[in-house]
Design goal:
CATH architecture: 3-Layer(aba) Sandwich
CATH topology: Rossmann fold
CATH class: Alpha Beta
Radius of gyration: 15 Å
Structural class: alpha/beta
Shape: globular
Largest sheet: 7 strands, mixed
Number of helices: 6
Number of domains: 1
Length: 190
């Protein structure tokens, strides 16, 4: 059975994470939840209340990872999904996650990133020459990394698909699932 690696950590956004987790499985693709350690992680909910300039963060559900970054062999996976929330702020400093991320790009396997997930891609140095979208407050992460930022729901640039926030989940996952199916067809033909 093909597998996708879904990156999580404390303060990963609930809707970013759970929508992808279940949607990918609906395609008959197994999802491994990768994190710094195998343990229970605390997800958060992000909303922008009326009159606020910033996102309000409240506690969400919990999710148990089943593989630590250090134990991931990227060759075992069809694609990589990087969720949003505040987790990428600290996950981008994990050397094993950087190794994993670069490996998916070197192999041109499907990679999906939304919201603050772009911070992991920027830290991995894989955005140069690409067009991407993200939450507008992460625009500079794309541009300072040599990419071009656009403010639209979904952008596909080679093997990378990006989205702004959980509000773009339906078209975003539609595109990522199509990429996974394309990659799976190539693998079965080989």
């Amino acid at each position: 059975m093909p597998k996708v690696l879904l990156v999580i950590g404390d303060a990963a956004e609930v809707l970013d994470t759970f929508y992808a987790y279940f949607r990918i499985q609906e395609e008959g693709i197994e999802v491994d939840l990768a994190a710094p350690e195998v343990r229970r992680y605390h997800l958060v909910q992000h909303e922008r209340p009326d009159g606020w300039d910033l996102t309000q963060e409240t506690p969400g559900y919990h999710l148990e990872s089943n593989v630590a970054f250090r134990d991931v062999n990227p060759d075992d996976y069809l694609g990589l999904f990087i969720t949003g929330g505040r987790a990428p702020e600290y996950l981008r400093y994990d050397d094993d996650l950087m190794r994993i991320t670069r490996s998916f790009f070197a192999a041109t396997k499907p990679v999906a990133s939304l919201c603050h997930g772009i911070e992991i891609l920027a830290a991995a140095g894989v955005l140069k020459g690409r067009t991407a979208t993200t939450v507008p407050k992460c625009q500079y992460d794309v541009e300072f990394s040599g990419g071009s930022y656009v403010n639209q729901p979904v952008v596909r640039s080679g093997n990378l698909v990006t989205a702004r926030t959980w509000s773009d989940n339906a078209p975003f996952l539609h595109e990522f699932v199509a990429m996974l199916n394309e990659a799976g067809s190539k693998d079965s033909a080989a």
